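Progress narrative, Year 2. Work on Dirigent protein from Dendrobium thyrsiflorum advanced from sequence curation to structure prediction during this period.
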Amino acid sequence: MDRLLLLLLLLPLVTPLLTADGGVNAKEKLIHLRFYWHGILSGPNPTAETIARSPVTNASATLFGLMNVIDDPLTLGPDLSSRQIGRSQGIYVSVDQNVVGLLMVMNFVFMDGKYNGSTLAVMGHNQVFSSVREMPIVGGTMLFRLARGYVQARTYSFRPEIGDVVVEYNCYVLRCSDY
Ligand SMILES: *[C@@H]1O[C@H](CO)[C@@H](O)[C@H](O)[C@H]1NC(C)=O
Ligand SMILES: *[C@@H]1O[C@H](CO)[C@@H](O)[C@H](O)[C@H]1NC(C)=O
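Result:
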């Protein structure tokens, strides 16, 4: 096939981005990352702690007004002892008066491999008892500069008596290959 024609056919597959100096040269690639997020509320070393509760609705069934701060380990496998690739640092707030629904604001801070030192920022709605929760990736740093995408969270295990939870996260990220 004619080379120019081939080039024209392939062109729409790469999304051009405007760079700071006005040039168009960056390419985006969809990548998939999967890891497990450990919310540990029990024991002497919790990774999630309650920092605020509403004095009015504290006892509500949806925990409306509860705010936790987290520094949750992210591991490659579902077991806490499997390879740790980063931490999820942020807060979540119970913001729904009818079902348990959280506003999640967190950074995935990667500490291993290629993405060591890079972060992804997630902000979204997490109705924790739904089987799949989707939240937007709103940006990132270093290798994830200008990133966007979404995550799908699925509860892997939950121990209601102590509150500990393991959640499988599948991240679909448009990553700019210039970084
Ligand atoms: C909220 O409820 C918890 C658990 O029932 C209780 O331990 C805590 O003291 C209450 N906090 C407030 C601010 O009412
Ligand atoms: C991640 O990067 C930090 C800072 O450069 C370095 O100290 C650390 O050893 C790296 N971790 C891994 C697992 O490569």
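The radius of gyration is 19 Å. The helical segments are 3-10.
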